[in-house]
Design a protein that fits this description.
Layout lengths: L1 H13 L1 H13 L2 H23 L1
Helix pairs in contact: 1-2
């Protein structure tokens, strides 16, 4: 969880214009696309943790 906050902090602190543009694009996305992207991100995260602990 801490690593996620570090990555988000880098985006918001280092590239605020990009963060605003991404937030605007997220608002325009259909809910199904956001749900699929969230599930895919969770699966990738679980895979990374599994490999790191392996």
């Amino acid at each position: 969880m801490g690593l996620v906050l570090v990555v988000e902090g880098i985006v918001y602190g280092g590239f605020p214009g990009l963060a605003r543009r991404l937030a605007t694009e997220v608002l325009a996305m259909p809910e199904a696309v956001l749900r699929a992207a969230g599930l895919a991100a969770m699966a990738v995260g679980v895979g990374i943790v599994w490999l790191a602990r392996g």
